[in-house]
Every structure is written in C-alpha cells, then in structure tokens.
Amino acid sequence: MAASLCPKPHFVVIPWPATSHIIPIVDIACLLAGYGAPVTVITTPASAQLVQGRVERAGPGSSGLTVTAIPFPAAEAGLPDGCERLDHTPSVDLVPNFFDATTRFGDAVARHCRLLMATATPARRPGCIVAGMCNTWAHGLARELGTPCFIFHGFGAFALLCCEYLNTHKPHEAAASLDELFDVPVLPPFEFRFARRQLPLQFLPSCSIPEVRLRELREFEMAVDGIVVNSFEELEHGSAAGLAAVTGGKAVFAVGPVSLCGAPGLLDPRADSDDARQCMAWLDAKKARSVLYVSFGSVGRMPPAQVH
Questions:
Q1: Which of 151, 158, 23, 159 has its CA nearest to residue 87?
Q2: Model confidence over 165-185: pLDDT tens digits?
Q3: How far apart are alpha carbons 38 and 29 in whole angstroms?
C-alpha cells in the first residue's frame, strides 16, 4: 500500500513590530519556506521593505514565502503617521498608544485570515501561526481557525527560563534596591545572581507597558502550544529542556542561529563579498582576543556622550 503524503501546513508568521523582532522571525519564516512549507509573513506597509529584504537575502529557498502588508492603524491610536514599529515611537509616553494600535492591527489580521480560510485552496489556508511575543491576540485567532499557535520572544532559552522563574517565584520583588543581588537557580548546580536593574522591562518598577498589557502577555505565554527560540543546544546547554519542563511540557524549538539563513558570505571569508573581505581583513589585523563586539540594540536611544 502506498504511503499517504501529509501536506505541509501553511505557516502564518506575524512579527511583533519592532526591528529587532522582525529580522529574526522573518529569518525563521525563510527557514520554514526552505523546507518546502508555504509561508505568509503578515506585516505593516512601513515594515514590508525590511521584511522583503530579508526574504530576498535568503535566496531561492524562500520562493514559497509571501509577504502580505496590512495597514497599521497608527492615527486611530493617536500615533504619528508612519509610526508602525516600536522603534519608530518618538516618546515612551506613546508606548500605550502603540500597544493599542497593535490590538487594532490584530483585528485586521484576523479579518484577513478568515478570508483566507473561506476562499483559499486547502494548501493556502492557515495551518499554524507563529507570532511575535506581544501579539497576544494571535492565540485567540489560532483557536478560532483551529490551528496551533507558537510564540517567538526574541530572547534565548536561558533568558526565557530565568523569566519563568521570576514570574513564578518573584525574588526581585523582595530586593531592597535595584542593585541588590538575588539568586535565580534555574540550572543547578550552577549559580546565577542578578540585580533588578538587569532584568527585562516587564520586571522593572518603571515599566512603560500598561499593567493590563503585561497580564495579557503572560496569559499569552501560558496559553500557546510552543516556543520558538533563536538559539541552539551547544550555546545554551540544558536551557531549552529546562524551559520545556517549567512551562508544563510545551514544545521548545531551538532553531538558531537563524541569521545564517541564506547568507554564507557573512561567515566565509572566501565568499565574493566586499563586506566580508573587509571585515575579515580588519579582524585579521587585530591581536587575538583584543576585539569586543557590543550591541545596544535597535530600540536604545542614547546621547553621544553616553555611548562614548
């Protein structure tokens, strides 16, 4: 008897609209397309060029990937025109407005997906949703469509494991100051100690994200079917397994480093790339262990004196 072939699900990938989240989750979408799965990335008009650039960078393997731009309701939420990514928000005071806009955007995405379910061929109907961390509405949409829903935070597995410990045990709330160290025993026998000022934004007393949004984020994290991380076991030994254990056995997919998708020239100095050759020549001219790479992220806004 001939074996029946199970069609690949149509992945709908919905990035959280911030540059540092868009880039890796689109690389993940390209990886999925490279395995022959149909993939649609749903984004905003202002981010469509960034998304398309990552898709083109991945080469012919991403030919099964479609980029769909849906208008972002910035003005309706009280944001400046064209403010469609978190790193475009001109003031921290407008962060609540941005979250409001993303909720409205979710309504538009839901309408688009319902239309796909009603009119598309079976192969093009949404079969799995991979959503950015603050697209909390994605889980309800997935349940409505009858598809699994996976979350992508952008953090590695170890950081997420620590966040789970903080959410459950809250040791930071007992700290007398932002600099007092407390234990986060997530991977015994190793010891980890942090100060509160080192924690992600949602654990800080000065968090600009409204409390209701933080609750929605936590509920979303707990409700999803699994977690996708841009990491790999050799980098974070035991962290993915630990994260699966503390989240009730959720599937944790360590698929990184996804930036390698379709870009061998970034690593191979023999590749025909001026940028690669210049980088390698500069590094070769330095003494061993004398170069330190520092990134302040895509959202940081620091005056030149502080950067210096």
A1: 23
A2: 999 999 999 999 999 999 999
A3: 9
